[in-house]
Amino acid sequence: MRSTLSLLASIAVLSGAVLSDRAAAQDSGGAPQQVIAAWRSNNETCRSPAATALAAVAACEQRDTYAKRLMQMNFCPDAQAAADAWRPCPTATAATPPRTTVQLARAGGIFVAPVVLNGTVKQFAILDSGASNLQIPQEVADELRRNGSLTDDDGLGQRRYILADGKGVQQRVFRLRTLQIGDKVMENVVATVSAPNSRVLLGQSVLRRLNGWAIDNVRNTLTLD
Fold first, then answer.
1. Which of 43, 110, 144, 213 keeps 20 to 30 A from 25, CA to CA?
2. Which residues pair with 75 in a beta bridge?
3. CA triplet 47, 55, 52: central angle to 5 degrees?
4. Would you say 138 and 193 are in contact if contact means Cβ atoms under 8 Å apart?
């Protein structure tokens, strides 16, 4: 219980910092340059090897939120400038997020998507918008530890979750450094360790960071924006 409260308190502190950052970005009507500055600040922390797991996760999520805001303001990443540059989209051109399409497979009558965890372990994952987080079976977490891509520094404590049947379960929470789905690589994703012999689930800690996602039941594909 204490570790859960500690984790929630840490998230609350970071959320307060994020709200201050967001308020600054919204001053003067949310000037684009302020939003870009907030995006850059979070991007730097998101990608910093020196950042703690909790700080990196929070920064990555906020960076993605600011990117959505900039696209709403019709700003596009400037591919011809620095990697952290944004500019107004060309005239008569709407901002569109990068898109990747993944061919789905079927397993036991359900669609699964191929994913790569921390650049080392390949799995097939179920898209589950009802799951709070990316969930990884115990044996997969053990494999990540054995190959050295998951360490104690990635730990985020424990948290109690309520399952669909109403039962409560205590799960270890950690930071997955990278999650690759098709051509898309997401950094610093919150994940939990689920029971042995369960399935990898792509939950809201993945889906909420996307601009959008859709399944094509004719072509059997998953599109991520």
1. 213
2. 88
3. 80
4. yes
